[in-house]
Amino acid sequence: MESRSSKDQDNQTGRITGEMLKSRTGEFDLESILFLKLRNLGISELGCIGDCMNLERLDLSNNHIVHLGPLSSLKLLVALNVSCNRISTLEPLVSCEILQTLNVAGNLLCSTDSLQCLKGLSRLESIRLRDPVYNLNNPLCNTNSYRQAVMETIPSVRIIDGERVTGCGSDLYHLCRDIDNSLKRFIGNGDVEVPGSVRPWVEDGYWVTKPAQSTIIEETYKQFNDVVQECKELSKRADDTIAQAERALSLRNEPNSFVF
């Protein structure tokens, strides 16, 4: 565990140094560092972070970082969290070719043009530009169509702001939304009783069947059950993959887990 004086020194310099990284990780060689958490340390300059050539996961959230230049040498970076900083360009990340997860919520990205540099990152599946839980945003999120623009700019993206926008999870989301809209229409037409309203137990036409509505509901249930079954299968595969990853990670003596 770090001493208070060590943290205070980090905050005073505002620059990442080799001594700082070694003291925080216990590693003697910067190239041996695979996981690094430098959250909320008042960092404004990335310094020698680029010397951690084998770094895979990096958390630099809640600092004062403006430039990401030194990150261009991190060819093995898979997950990066630079949320809540002062970043206006992501150009240095062009070299991070296997990056999969990126959190840049709470920065100064003004338009989707600033994401064009990420277009070639074919493995980038998750990007967070907005985080309502912590009230983090980017100026480009002020338009309602920014998510569609992100999907067009970075074709590989599957998750935006924590919500799956393509794939089976997205299908389930849209199906539930369609069901909700259909129920709203039924309520508006008086076909579904609104809570709190008083209606007779038997109404005119109560015993008249409505085959059209029944068919719609049956088909909806069928689609819903099919998607749920597919989600269960995906969940099982995900559990197996996670179990394999945990066994592999247990051999690396990794530091504390990261939150992205």
UniProtKB/TrEMBL annotation:
Annotated Gene Ontology cellular components are: cytoplasm
Please give the superkingdom of this protein's source.
Answer: Eukaryota
Query: What Pfam families does the entry give?
Result: LRR_9
Question: Which PROSITE patterns does the record match to this protein?
Answer: LRR
Q: Name one GO biological process term.
A: outer dynein arm assembly
Matches recorded under Gene3D superfamilies: Ribonuclease Inhibitor (3.80.10.10)
Q: Which UniProt keywords apply?
A: Leucine-rich repeat, Repeat
Protein name per Swiss-Prot or TrEMBL: Leucine rich repeat containing 61
Q: In which organism is this protein found?
A: Hymenochirus boettgeri
